[in-house]
Amino acid sequence: MIMLRNKNNIYVIFILKYLLILTLTPELESERFLAFFDSCKEICLNPYQNIYELSNESLSFPYGYVMYLFLLPFFLLSKVIPVSFTILSYIFVELVSISILNKFFDVDTNKLMLPFVLNPIIIYSVGVKGYLDFIPLLFFLLCLNSFKNKRFESALIFLSLGIGTKSILILILPLLLIYIYRNTSEISRTVKSSFLSFVIIGGIYLPIFLSKTYYDSVLKGITEGADVLQNSGIFNLNTLVISQIIIFITYYFFYKNLKKMDYFGLISCLGICTFPLFILNFSNLGWFMWSIPAIVYVFLSVENSRKYLIYIYFLSVIVIDLKIFNSTVNENLIAIQFFFSLIVMKYFYQFLVQNKFFRIKSKPILIAIAGDSGVGKSSITSILSDFFGPKNTTVIEIDNYHKYERGDKVWETKTHLDPIVNKLSFYKKQLTEIISGNVEKIREYNHLTGNFDEPKNIKVNDFLLIEGLHPLLMEDLNNIYNLKVYIDLEKNIKDKFKINRDLERNKSMEEIENQIKSREKDYDTFVEPQKKHADLTINTLSLDENTIKIQVMFSTEYLEEILEIFENSKVKLIDQKYDGENAELSFESTKYNQELINELVKSVSNIRDDKFEFGNDEINLKSSLIIYFLSKKLELL
């Protein structure tokens, strides 16, 4: 593994590998494909027209039209360069696939060497046998990469083209369409995406109805695969039926756990769906490639000792296929190989359920945001709700638990900051019920009128955002929040914000100034002490048209990483203090530091709503800080 960390060594490995495989002529190419491509003296609109003049007839090229078009340039190139056109196309596909995998998994090429570049099953199945499954794999990877970037229409175009190379990939289409609907909740978009897919697939396979030879070739590819599963399965079983059962179970599991899937969960689930087709019939090595995204994911996630074990498993597949040993030994080896295949399947499931997104979606995430009136709690909560997606978020405002409306005489002697004039015990009861999955009716306090509106039904969602004056006041509730945040502003900024806000609420300047003064004592007594319970405190020190100075306090364990992020994001560090428990940083930044925001939220991009974009003010910057520290807490789930 150390050798693979050196870039020069990696280049040498690539060169040696390609020099070796360029000397090979795959079996299927020499036995079938070459005659098929040679049957067209020029570029053919219907290359299947002469298949019954070939010795292998409809088995000469049992693939879709896209497969032919993809291979054609490499076939023509092989007429100039006397090497296998299958190998030429494989080298091209591998280089493109590496680039995609680098981006998808955010890893360097050295991490892909053993599971992908030097994977003996891939090299043997292509270089020796001549299976073409690496081409639909390329379209599959392009599809998954588009899914990761939430370009769903592009993803379906790539998958449709993949189906145009090998029709079996249509097994994946229903899963991806359901996944799109879950991520958008837009029926119209899902319908349009489905229609787009069927139009492309229909266009590719329409000639089936116009050309009997094309129909026979494609049908032969399908029936041949079914026959292999039905008659040549492991342990002489009818693995076609078993495969159908496994696919059905996977579909059901996917549907039931849909909300818990991100793109890594998706590839694990797809691995569970496709890998059984390979392990139930080891004779068709090309089927292994359909599970490559999941294989790479597992390989990147396990420690080195298990990597080597999985790699030995890859080698054993080749040894068995070469039939070096007698039939008895070979049968025993197949049984052992099947056992290790089940271990790989276990990894697929294990990394699915241990995936951060899956765990997040398995129970609600609670974020409590406390602070004085007018510091931006509601604005930050709104941004967080949009980031996670309104359909995934429930917001509870503790202002809804005021005992009295604005016109009540009690406010002549009390302020809203006093816990005694808030139904905090009722809030605690309702929050507990909501977390348990029950629906609660919560009346809403209208800040414009000062009155309570009609109660609304509130139920738990993936993210539960609680904001108000007193969310960190109760010790037992503090133990169940995933992240506790305290927001503050320097007094001159806070007073200015309060004045602007309350003027919009139709209050007079005199009324606003009196209220600010009357609340100072209760703020010091009841609100500010909650700061000691917070995991993160954000205090705005100064603010002008372009720049912002912020003080943040948090656990020292995150100090090193946050300093590295600041250093790489054009942030000016003003002051830093830390001890064995807590750290305090003061920094200056432009109000819209997109580089900083992107760095802070990148580890939870799979949670981000596809429609969300950060704004260009200090509230968005502070929201990204909260998202960063939430991501750190979620790592412990």
Notable traits:
single chain, 637 residues, alpha/beta, Rossmann fold, YehR-like fold, 3 domains, 8-stranded mixed beta sheet, two-stranded antiparallel ribbon, 10% strand
Description:
The protein has an eight-stranded mixed beta sheet with strand order 2-5-1-6-7-8-10-9. It has a two-stranded antiparallel sheet with strand order 3-4. It is 55% helix and 10% strand. The protein has 25 helices and ten strands. The mean pLDDT is 85. It folds into three domains: 3-358, no CATH class; 363-491, Rossmann fold, CATH 3.40.50; 535-637, YehR-like fold, CATH 3.30.1830. It has helices at residues 7-21, 27-38, 65-80, 85-105, 113-117, 120-129, 134-148, 152-165, 173-184, 187-205, 212-231, 239-256, 263-279, 292-301, 304-322, 327-353, 356-362, 377-388, 424-435, 475-478, 491-504, 509-527, 559-567, 594-601, 618-634; strands spanning 365-371, 393-397, 440-442, 456-458, 463-468, 483-489, 536-543, 547-555, 572-578, 582-590. A hairpin with a 3-residue loop joins strand 7 and strand 8 (547-555). It has 637 residues and is α/β, with parallel strands linked by helices. Helix 11 packs across helix 12 (239-256), helix 13 (263-279) crosses helix 14 (292-301) and helix 14 crosses helix 16 (327-353).
